[in-house]
Structure formats: C-alpha cells, structure tokens
Amino acid sequence: MCVELAERALKPVPRLVSGAADGPARELAREAVIWALLAERALRTNEPPPFAASDAPPASLSALWSAAPRALLATAAGEEGAVHVLEASLALDGFVEFAALSAEEQARQSRDLAVFARSLLAQVEAPRVRLDRLYVQRIVRTGGLLLALVVIALAVLSTRSWNERQRDLARGRPYRTSSSYPGVGCKSPDQDCPESPFFFFHTQEEDHPWVELDLGGKKRFSAVRIINREDCCAERAVPLAIEVSNDRKTWREVARRDDTFNNWYKEFPPVSARYVRAISLHKALFHLRRFSVLR
User: Apex CA 281: angle with CA 278 and CA 283, to 5°?
Assistant: First the structure.
C-alpha cells in the first residue's frame, strides 16, 4: 500500500494544488522498503516479525539494510552501483535533510526509491509463490484417494493446457507496450521470467495503455486467453478491448471485457491479422500475467 500511494503521489491525477509531492512520496517509498526488508528477514530467518512480540524493539532501516542479502538488493536495484546510491538516499532520515536537496535531486530520489521498493517487494514475494507450489505438491503426494482424483484432474488440465499451448500463436512472439514502468517486467518475447512472477509487462499510468503482439505474419485465429496480474490490482485491466491490425495503423475490435477478471477466455468469429493488442479503455497502469492468441 505504501509503494502504491507513493506511485500515485508522484503522478497525481488531477495535479496537486500545493505542488509536487516528492517529499511525501519518498517517505512512503522508504516505509515500503522497511516493510519489505522486515518480511525478507522473517522469511530468511524463519522468525516472527518484531511486531509479533510486544517487548521486541523496532528494527532500524540501517540494521535491516545491513542484514539483507546483498544479491537481493542488487537485483532489486538493477546493479551493485545503484545499491550505493539508494543507500545514500535512504540515509536521509526526515524532511529537513530532504528539503535541503535541489528540486532535481528530490525528484530523482523519490522516483528511484519508489521503483526500488516495487522491485524489492516483487523479489520478496517470489519465494512465497514457490512455497505455495511446493505445498500443493505435498498434498498431491500424500492424499490417497484424493491423490488419485487430483492426478486425474491435473491430467485433464495438463492435457487441456498442452493443447492450448500448441494453439497459441503468441508463444515466443515479440511484443511491445505503450510505455514501460522502470525496473519491472520481462523482456520481449518472454511472458515468464523469475524477476517478474506476477506480470510480464507493466506500463506507466497513461490514457489507453496497451500491449501489442507481432505474430510474424498474417495468421488466422478465433480466441484469446488473458490472465490478469496475479498478486493485486485486477481492476486496473478493465474495461479491456482486443484489437487486430495488419498495418499497425487501422485497428478493429474483436472482443471486449468490462467486468474484473482473473482468467478470461474469449472466442470470436475467425480473423486473419499479423498484430493483436490488448488495450485498456481508460487511464491506468496496465499489466497482465499472460496474453495468448489461439487458433
């Protein structure tokens, strides 16, 4: 919540009457970093966070930062050099020191910290996703009759999933987006990557953001499957339209979704096109987990 509020403060709609909110945004991003590092420490040490015990002293940011794995900080920051810059920014504790910086430095620090906080949260959340998958595997191994039923169900789902992958014209195809949020998302043509487990792209907040697939040539298809961002914010994707084109200039809508969804499968009369895009029909940040185009 802290990092989302920081992001909104940095790009408020409408603009704030009192001017730029770099100071409050920086404090919110700094708070998000503290929560992320507390969660990382709890996961790494298998100990409850300090607020679980009333007599535990609060952890300082400097102590949490020093104890955090350097590789985690470097991955979230993008490189080792950026870790030192962020460390210096986080060392400013309060509005007084921050207010003494130039306007350009204030803007840079608040934006860099918000991007870092978002990336750090994604890194910390990744082990939880892997643990959830391991938990499901353990249930399958020890379930007796339930195991047999689960295996049958998984076999059906796996076969269906395999058949759908074979039909997916978007698999391995390059994509581009209307904008890119710094430091997050996968690199085209990947729609799966360990550094971004919940979405494969993330735009800036803008009017009608989009993601566009290049099928490499004119292809015939009749359905799409869209999997929404998996950790939060599913409402940002709607209303959503699927459009096709052969020249990237003239687009025709073939499907639309107005209700919030997690997994949307939509069939329509067969069309032939090279380019397919999913476009948000309002002003928003835009992100999806998967975008499949099916024969």
Answer: 115
CATH topology of domain 168-294: Jelly Rolls (2.60.120)
Cα separation of 236 and 283, whole Å?
A: 9
Range from 53-57, 66-70, 98-102, 189-193 carrying the lowest mean pLDDT: 53-57
d(Cα 214, Cα 192) in Å, to the nearest integer? Answer: 17
Kindly provide the b/e burial profile for residues 109-123, where b requires at least 16 CB atoms within 10 angstroms of the residue's own CB: bbbbbbbbbbbbbbb
In DSSP notation, 137-159 reads HHHHHT-THHHHHHHHHHHHHHH
Domain boundaries, the chain: 2-128, 168-294
The answer to whether the predicted template modeling score (pTM) of the entire model surpasses 0.70 is no
Quickly state the pLDDT bin for 98 (edges 50, 70, 90). Answer: confident
Record the tokens describing residue 4, joined without a space: 């989302």
H or E, element range at 1: none
Which residues 6+ apart lie within 8 Å of 270 measured at CB? Answer: 220, 221, 222
Q: Tell me the C-alpha distance between 69 and 36, whole Å.
A: 13
Contact of 198 with 276, CB cutoff 8 Å: no
Residue 221's pLDDT is what?
96
Question: What is the helix (H) or strand (E) element at residue 269, kind and residue range?
Answer: strand 263-280
Q: What is the mean pLDDT of the chain?
A: 88
Give residue-wise pLDDT tens across range 180-231: 999 899 999 999 999 999 999 999 999 999 999 999 999 999 999 999 999 9
Asked if pLDDT for residue 143 goes beyond 70, the answer is no
Instruction: Report angle CA 204, 208, 211 to the nearest 5 degrees.
Output: 70
Q: Retrieve residue 238's tokens.
A: 């709607």
What is the distance between the alpha carbons of residues 36 and 179, in angstroms, rounded to a whole number? Answer: 26
Tokens representing residue 134 in the block: 């391991």
